[in-house]
Specification:
Helices cover 14% and strands 40% of the residues. The protein is mainly beta and 85 residues long. The chain has one domain. The radius of gyration is 14 Å and the shape is globular.
Length: 85
């Protein structure tokens, strides 16, 4: 666990919001995008009242997708990185 922690902590600390990519839809929902070192890239999909509806996370070459109404999905990130879900 110590090896993962040594990689994970600086990666999490490096996350920065990409405000230029903020997208607000006419229904009030929005998408927030962050990027960090080691290819870390969370995308947060929020509904109009601010609740998280979906979270896509690319981290260390893996893809994790959480949806409020579905099971957690995992897989290998695409060669170009980022969410393909």
């Amino acid at each position: 666990m110590a090896v993962l922690e040594r990689r994970l902590v600086p990666t999490i600390q490096s996350l920065a919001r990409i405000r230029a990519a903020d997208k607000n839809d006419t229904d009030g929902s929005r998408v927030l995008w962050h990027q960090g070192s080691s290819g870390a890239e969370p995308l947060s999909y929020l509904v109009s009242d601010g609740r998280l509806e979906r979270q896509d996370l690319t981290l260390f070459g893996k893809q994790i997708v959480w949806r409020r109404a579905a099971r957690l999905q995992t897989g290998v990130a695409s060669e170009g990185g980022g969410s393909q879900a």
